[in-house]
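name: query_chain
kind: protein
chains: 1
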Amino acid sequence: AANQWPADGVPESPRGWLVTVASRRFVDQVRGERARRHREAFFAGREPADAMVQPAPDEPDHRDRDDTLTLLFMCCHPALAPASRIALTLRAVGGLTTAEIARAFLVPEATMAPRISRAKQRIRASGATFGLSGGREYAERLSAVLHVLYLIFNEGYTASSGPDLYRSDLAGEAIRLTRAMHRRLPGDGEVAGLLALMLLTDARRAARTDADGGLVPLDEQDRSRWDTGMIEEGTRLVTDAMLRSPLGPYQLQAAIAALHVAAPRAEDTDWRQIRFLYRVLCRIAPNPMATLNHAVAVAMTDGPHAGLAMLSELADDGRMARHHRLAGVRAHLLELAGDAPAARENYLIAARGTTSAPEQRYLRDRADRRTLTHSTLTSR
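structure:
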């Protein structure tokens, strides 16, 4: 927080300023939550009520139109509960299967299928239209649409099942739609933050798999293969958003992604700033995945046992108790702590819990390496 700003007010690198901006924004928001809500409602209300509908036949249209965006907003009708809006949009617009949506929501497929069916019936019965009334309804729909795009990108970037780690159709469509949203709403910090997050994450795509399609973790990736153009664009987007907009969860995640790609080597990663940003994220948008990532950052700054202590709390969360990512992170931290047998056990639990073939191979390989290391140590 002691870093100084450049004279022109635009930082040259995300390192050293992201935590400063985040901390200042967070304090401001805690002190002025009521004023923040008023500003959001005001700016949302300035968007024309027909901003997401096609113009009349005799009305000239000078804006970039996309029927898919119109469908996105229709699926986020207020007649539906937030979870149902997102599930229906993923099905109708994103093209995800019921099983993929269920995994994104951390619920069984048998729970998700009737939820989607009820959402379809409800939206038909409500006589949903394409129009938007602005104000609070608009803001709620926009939030749901961004969440949908976030989930679609996540499913594309790391497919929850199948032989491939990456699904270019989903990730590419999520980026395309978010770009369209940003063109419509260039002053919205969270739209810009989400686009930045996608670009900064997708920039690493080429280095995430080896020649056989196997998963390569972040700290082992060849950073020369990262897309510098996407990194520069994403960094500019999140810089501008954090300087000019109320702080939001997508901006924070984009800032974390920017810190990761700013490090020339894995050992140069600024984990202290990342840990702080995750702490803020968990305050303003608490969820188990954020806590899981926060635990990793804590482990990298305070040692693996500190991170493991945080994971023990997640084990009581029904959404995460059986999720393979919890077991995978626990295995990694146990490995760092030197407990090879427990690390191997958790790698195998994680491998059994995922339906992604590349993830299964990677986790089993890690388990085998832990077995070899343990056998070597005990034979000495």
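note: The first helix runs from residue 18 to 31.
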